[in-house]
Design brief:
The chain is built from 8 helices and 7 strands, in the order H-H-E-H-E-H-E-E-H-E-H-E-H-E-H. Strand 1, helix 3 (49-63) and strand 2 form a beta-alpha-beta unit. A 7-stranded parallel β-sheet has the order 4-3-2-1-5-6-7, sandwiched between helices. It has helices at residues 5-8, 10-28, 49-63, 76-86, 118-127, 139-153, 167-182, 203-212, and strands at 35-39, 67-70, 91-96, 111-115, 129-134, 162-165, 197-200. By secondary structure, it is of the alpha/beta class.
Length: 223
């Protein structure tokens, strides 16, 4: 289905949505490990620093017993799944079926799923994560980061770390949020919204933030 077919055949659309949610949670519920979800550019090449950084981070988290979830594509996603696979940890790729050119053929997944609805794909990727890690990326990554921040500051999701790797890359965004959104009183909780994200430079920083952050069982549930 695509475009107007969604609303011209609402019963079929609703059934497809229900089926996709079930398939997504059937996969996640097979994973006994705590899950960490990685986001970032699909354009980053294997030779680049961020790719190698991401693969190492996922490898180290995998060795510690975490499962790794990504969008199942190339770039940062492939790096994270490769690191998880190398650590023999659960490596889950949830690919967007309608996005062309993002197939990964290597055998780096313990679980692989293709979803048609992009909003459901994000929902499944977020749903059971212990932490969300963001590497440099473009519009898609910014969309995912914004949604994670929104889920946190509205209390729809329990507290969990949102980690942006390489503060220099993200600096302009947060300057804009401070100088424009915050000063115009457009943030729900004011300055505290700007503290939802933590920055990390090294793989060790990422792991330290995750493991020092209270788990949902140690905090009051917000949703």
């Amino acid at each position: 289905m695509a475009n107007k077919n969604y609303w011209e055949a609402p019963d079929e659309t609703i059934q497809e949505i229900a089926d996709e949610v079930k398939r997504g949670f059937d996969v996640l519920n097979q994973i006994p490990n705590e899950i960490v979800t990685f986001f970032g550019s699909a354009q980053i090449e294997e030779s680049e620093e961020f790719y190698q950084h991401c693969e190492n981070t996922a490898f180290e988290l995998g060795k510690k017993g975490y499962a790794i979830v990504t969008g199942g594509g190339p770039g940062i996603m492939r790096a994270a799944n490769s690191g998880a696979s190398r650590a023999e940890a659960p490596s889950i790729g949830i690919r967007a079926g309608l996005i062309d050119g993002q197939q990964v053929t290597e055998n780096i997944y313990s679980h692989k799923l293709e979803m048609e609805f992009v909003f459901l794909r994000r929902f499944v990727m977020y749903a059971k994560s212990r932490a969300w890690i963001f590497y440099p990326g473009g519009i898609g990554t910014l969309d995912e980061l914004s949604e994670c921040m929104q889920l946190r500051y509205t209390g729809i999701r329990n507290q969990k770390p949102i980690i942006c790797v390489n503060e220099e890359y993200w600096e302009g965004l947060f300057i804009w949020l401070r100088e424009k959104a915050y000063k115009n009183n457009f943030l729900m909780h004011g300055e505290s919204d700007l503290k939802l994200v933590q920055f990390a430079e090294s793989s060790e920083d990422v792991i330290r933030i995750i493991e020092s952050f209270p788990t949902s069982s140690q905090t009051v549930s917000q949703g």
